[in-house]
Design a protein that fits this description.
By secondary structure, the chain is α/β, with parallel strands linked by helices. Helix content is 25%, strand content 26%. Strand 12 (188-194), helix 6 (203-215) and strand 13 form a beta-alpha-beta unit.
Amino acid sequence: MRKHYRVVIVGAGTGGISVAARMLREKRHLADDILLIDPETKHYYQPLWTLVGAGAVKKEESVREMMSLIPDGAIWLQDRVVGFDPEANQVETADNGSIQYDYLVVSPGIEIDWERIKGLKEALGTKQVCSNYSYEHVDYTWETLRGFEGGTALFTHPASPVKCGGAPQKIMYLAEDYFSKSGVRENSNIVFGSANPAIFDVTKYREALEKVLDRKRIETHFRVNLTEIKADEKVAVFENLDSHETFEMNYDMIHVTPPMQAPASIRESKLADAGGWLDVDKYTLQHKRYENVFGLGDCTNLPTSKTGAAIRKQAPVVVHNLLDQMYGKVPVATYDGYSSCPIVTGYNSLILAEFDYEKVPQESMPFNQAKERHSMYILKKDFLPLLYWNGMLNGTM
């Protein structure tokens, strides 16, 4: 195979495919000179997994064959990038050696670190230990909810950035709704253990969600981080992030949101910041030290929520600025930190949070989006997947 391409894109997830599609729409002459590198054969629309875990959607609806999504004119190399050498303008792959580029787009997503919580990897999918962050195990969340007969249902949020910061609480609200319908709610205690200081960062939505917590009688513990699961004893071990003391909590079921980090190939490269994330300018999405490198999505150090909605706004900025750089212009397109989190609060209700870097609401609907609405639940469940597959990945929205 060729060893040099005009543009190399690492990661054929939401960011990589969106950028490739947009570039080819704008500059058709780049056909066959854009290389997408990704080892996966399947592409997942992960926002649906919350609803899969609650039994509202089948997980098969969230997956497509990768080959069917690669834009016409882009070349897909099914391989894994194991290293970056930005000084030499090349990436190192697991099976195809070094590949050189003129311009690089880095968007391989985020890496889940199941092993950082002692006992989690071994217990996942058994003994009422579940997580919606695994396609393999997401069905077990629904199995666990259906089999729950009362007691303590524990839900966690780790002390790390995560894909969709609202997801850890969404499944909790759905579980509470299901327990009410199945008749076990009065015999149940629902507990949220979160490393965050509050239920949400943006004041408007935080206040609305605090009312949801009160109404659903959910017990909250903030600034606590799950460090260990003793599955045989059904005991969760937490660290208080302020006092650094540890304490235990008994549960009858636990939904764990695992810690996450940038992929090792980025963390161990010259592209990383001190925390291991891809170090890009938060407005132009151009790398801070290598001007022919751009990045977007969950692998970056952008100070906003890691969501597909954020990538939808980032992709056109990357394409505009990369093409400006390519043709000798100064990159001027800017990203304002927009992100969106459709927070499901029950089987027929949703708060649609939209906000920017300043944590200021940036709402797109002509009504108060902090109010729970059935229409917004339908938007998430039925319409956003269609827009994703047929619009966003085609570079048209």
